[in-house]
Amino acid sequence: MSQMLGKQSIKLDTKVYIMGAGSAVGPKEGEGPLGACFDHVFEDPMAQADSWEEAESELQKEAARIALKKAKLKPQELRYVFAGDLLAQSIASSFGVEDLQVPLFGLFGACSTMGESLSLGAMTVAGGYAGHVLCLTSSHFASAEKEFRFPLGYGNQRPLSASWTVTGSGACVLGLERGKVCITGITTGKIVDKGIKDSLNMGACMAGAAADTIYHHFHDFERNPEDYDKIITGDLGSVGREILCKLLGEKGYDIAPNHTDCGILIYDPETQDTHAGGSGCGCAASVLAAHILPELTKGDWKRVLFVPTGALLSKVSFAEGNTVPGIAHAVVLERGVE
Fold first, then answer.
1. Distance (Å, rounded) from C-alpha 220 to C-alpha 213?
2. Do 274 and 163 meet the contact criterion of CB atoms below 8 Å apart?
3. Which of 78, 205, 213, 220 has its CA at 20 to 30 Å from residue 325's CA atom?
4. Domain that holds residue 321
């Protein structure tokens, strides 16, 4: 069962548990601060595939395999898969999950897709429409550059505000069996357009949406920043974090003391030349599986607000001179049973 709160939120009276989570990343991510936390680090960014796009599908296959193994489930025990990526027609997901032979909901929320996937998956399980579902997203630096920016061989110079698309995938299996971490609430984001046209400044494009979702979450749940051990956004990086804290500060909320960002956590900017930090569907998803859930499992954190953020960048709209709107989806994660 669930309870609607305000205009954007849902409180899940039936707790939905994360039964297993898996992360698979590329070599650059494996060299970062969280390198030892990831379940699988591919030594080759091609993952022995023939193309960057096929490599991204391999990331999804590995993350899903690990999540199912930890959940002690077989693919046929899943009712649905909620998956998405950044590529046209979500081809990383369609080729990534086809071997599972499980009914698929293909999603697109740009880099916020893991929040969207967890939200829809949790509502489906809580509502009694599925016993187990798989939530899955991915991104790949090379496939994203090829899709949205420049061929790698072009060797273009990246501005300091640019983020680095994470080569990685994260997967979570959701169910009602009692476990260490559960989803207890959801705040679904609206499209927020601040009029930004800089396709290389993802943090600025998404910060307004993150601020809007977090603000409405606090309002709907009647909570404050201190009600959370951590507020963790998805892909804002250092540039977006500064904007986010300023925007929420103007509304009376100081999240700086307990806020961090997956895009900041995943790379070392001093040694890895990633500028503003990490981004991509695989950023929040892999950090969730490798870092956030283990911290909750250990009991170091009791309640986390997980807010993946997305820049709704389109090759078509951008070429026509349009702006880059943003969206963010918030998911409340809490420590479950011992």
1. 10
2. yes
3. 220
4. 181-335
